[in-house]
Amino acid sequence: MRVTDRELIRCAEEAKAHSYSPYSGFAVGAAIECADGEVFVGCNVENAAFGSTICAEAAVIAAAVAAGYREFRRIAISSDGTKYCMPCGNCRQLLHEFSPNIEVLAARADGRYVSYPLDKLLPNAFAIGAGD
After folding, report:
1. Which of 1, 5, 13, 63 has its CA 20 to 30 A from that of 36?
2. Residues whose CB is less than 8 angstroms from the CB of residue 44 and which lie 6 or more positions away in sequence, other chains included
3. Tally of CB atoms within 10 A around 7
4. 5-121 classified as CATH 3.40.140.10
5. What is the pLDDT of residue 2?
6. 63, 92 Cβ separation under 8 angstroms
7. Are 75 and 106 a contacting pair, CB within 8 Å?
8. Domain limits of the chain?
């Protein structure tokens, strides 16, 4: 089963409601679609030790991996901001680890979104054993 872009974004928006973001006030939700159509959700979890903060994208990947999934088709990321919510550099690399060809849907508060293949957001990604 494959969900639509809007359905995946709606899942990310629902996950955003569970964000723990008392320091930045920037709630983020993410939803990832696995190769078989299964969908997982995650949200950002901040910490007073800022380096320990968990991005929504990392949280959703961890949830899917913990359930035994390793191949992903699309990820939707949503925030209440006026700009499209793009994954940070660390999360782009984490996405590449599992699915170098994943599609990234980045949404903003008004419901508009853009779509990019990961290689456009992370050109020349680092990979061990990737050849030349």
Report:
1. 13
2. 19, 20, 21, 26, 27, 28, 53, 54, 55, 56, 59
3. 14
4. yes
5. 85
6. no
7. no
8. 5-121
Tokens 């990961």 belong to 118
Residue 67 has, within 13 A of its CA and on its CB side, a CA count of 14
Q: What are phi and psi of 12, to 5 degrees?
A: -65, -40
Whether the CB-CB separation of 75 and 85 falls below 8 Å is answered with no
Is the pLDDT higher at 130 or at 92?
Answer: 92
Angstrom distance (rounded) from CA 99 to CA 101? 5
Instruction: Give the confidence band of 129 by pLDDT, cuts at 50, 70, 90.
Output: low
* Catalytic residue annotation: 57
pLDDT digit string (tens) for 39-70?
999 999 999 999 999 999 999 999 999 999 99
pLDDT in the model for residue 132 = 44
**Residue 104 CA: distances (Å) to CA of 47, 95, 126, 131:** 26, 10, 18, 25
Strands (DSSP E) contained in the chain are 28-34, 39-43, 72-79, 103-107, 113-117
